[in-house]
Amino acid sequence: MYINKVMVYGNLGRDPELKSLPSGVQVASFSLATTRVYKDKDGGKQEQTDWHNIVVFGRQAETTSQYLHKGNAAFIEGRLQTRSWEKDGVKQYRTDIVADRVQFGPKAGSTGAPTTTKGDESAEPPASSGKGIEYPEEDIDPDDIPF
């Protein structure tokens, strides 16, 4: 069995660009920056930023281009795909993350839960009453638990 799974969380480097394939399927592409913070050998704080090319298809592409903008945080789950082409006799390569799932990060100044889109579905988190978890008032009998 082979596994091709990628998960990245970062900030958009540019607004998503929405295009349409000849078949009518929507495609959104954007870049996502992930930053790693570490200490060098002298104990000084260092940062290293990696840029990832993200490609999203279908209804999820429309939702992504509508709600995500440069600087927004996003969590992306998907797979790696490398394309190659020849330009002026030189072979060019580009590796993209083809997103299966896009989870929107919190907006600036927001304390709410992130929003998720998966496949052709989009979901909003349920409205919170601010009370936390609501537990049942009656006692739970361990004999009622099926495992």
Key words describing this protein structure:
mainly beta; 147 residues; OB fold (Dihydrolipoamide Acetyltransferase, E2P); 6% helix
What does it look like?
- This protein is mostly beta strands and 147 residues long.
- It has one domain (6-125): Beta Barrel (OB fold (Dihydrolipoamide Acetyltransferase, E2P)).
- 6% of the residues lie in helices and 51% in strands.
- The chain contains one helix and eight strands.
- The chain has one helix at residues 59-67; strands at 6-12, 17-20, 26-39, 45-57, 73-87, 90-104, 115-118, 121-123.
- Strands 1-3-4-6-5 form a five-stranded mixed β-barrel.
- The longest helix has 9 residues, at 59-67.
- It is extended and about 75 Å long.
- The two termini are 31 Å apart.
Q: Any idea what the CATH superfamily is called?
A: Nucleic acid-binding proteins
* Total domains: 1
Tally of helical runs? 1
The helix content, as a percent range, equals under 10%
